[in-house]
C-alpha cells in the first residue's frame, strides 16, 4: 500500500448547492479513522470549487459583456481556497501546514494530512493533484465526485451511455479532449489526464458521498468505481 495517497475532492460534493455539513462530518470522521488505523500513512486532499465557483463564474458571465477566460479561472480558484480552508480547519489536528496554493512551492508536510486548492489559470484542481502525486511519490489518485463511475458518454443526454469498470488513458483522453475550459464538467480534467498519463499515474473515479466505498479504495479493498490507467 502506498505511503501517500492523493484525493481530488470534487467541489460538487463539498458544496453541491450549499455547504454539505453532514457529508463533511462523515468524510472527516472517516479520514481520522483511516489515519488512526494506519499511523504511517499520509493523505493529500485537493479541494474543488463546486457550486460556489459556478455561482461566481455565472455572475461574472451574466454581468460582463465580454468575460475573460483567465478571470473565470481566478473566480473558480478563489472558491477552491474557501473550501480548502474549511477542510483544513476541520482536520487541523492532523494538518500542520498552511493551505497549499502552489503545488510547486516548498512544502514541509509535517502532519498526516496536507490540504491543497487551486493554483493558477489553465487547469483545474485535478492537475494540482497530479503535480502533488508526482512530487510525493503517489502512483494513484482517488478522484471523488458525485458520480459512481465514468460512462461512455454523458448519461444525462445519452441514454445509451454505459458505466465503465476500467478504461485506458488513451480511450479516456479521446473522450474528454485536451483543452481545459473553466467550469467544464468532466470526470477528470483534460490537462490533468495528459500529465497523469505521461507520469504513469492511475486514477480511480468514485462517488465521494459513499464514505465506505472511499475507505475501501484507500485500504485496497474491492470498490465501486472506474480505474483509469
List keywords for this structure.
two-stranded antiparallel ribbon, globular, Carbamate kinase, seven-stranded mixed beta sheet, 41% helix, 16% strand, 8 helices, alpha/beta, 9 strands, 229 residues
Structure overview:
- This protein is an alpha/beta fold and 229 residues long.
- The chain has one domain (4-228): Acetylglutamate kinase-like (Carbamate kinase, 3-Layer(aba) Sandwich).
- The protein has eight helices and nine strands.
- The strands form two sheets. Strands 3-2-1-4-8-9-7 form a seven-stranded mixed beta sheet, with helices on both faces. A two-stranded antiparallel ribbon has the order 5-6.
- Helix 5 packs parallel to helix 7 (190-199).
The CATH architecture is 3-Layer(aba) Sandwich
What is the gyration radius calculated from CA atoms? 17 Å
What is the number of beta strands? 9
What count of structural domains? 1
Helix content: 40-55%
The low-confidence runs, each spanning 5 or more residues with pLDDT under 50, are none
Q: Indicate the mean pLDDT.
A: 93
Structural class: alpha/beta
Shape: globular
CATH topology: Carbamate kinase
Q: Strand fraction band?
A: 15-25%
Order of helices and strands: EHHEHHEHEEEEHHEHE
Largest sheet, order of strands side by side?
3-2-1-4-8-9-7
Please identify which CATH superfamily we are dealing with: Acetylglutamate kinase-like
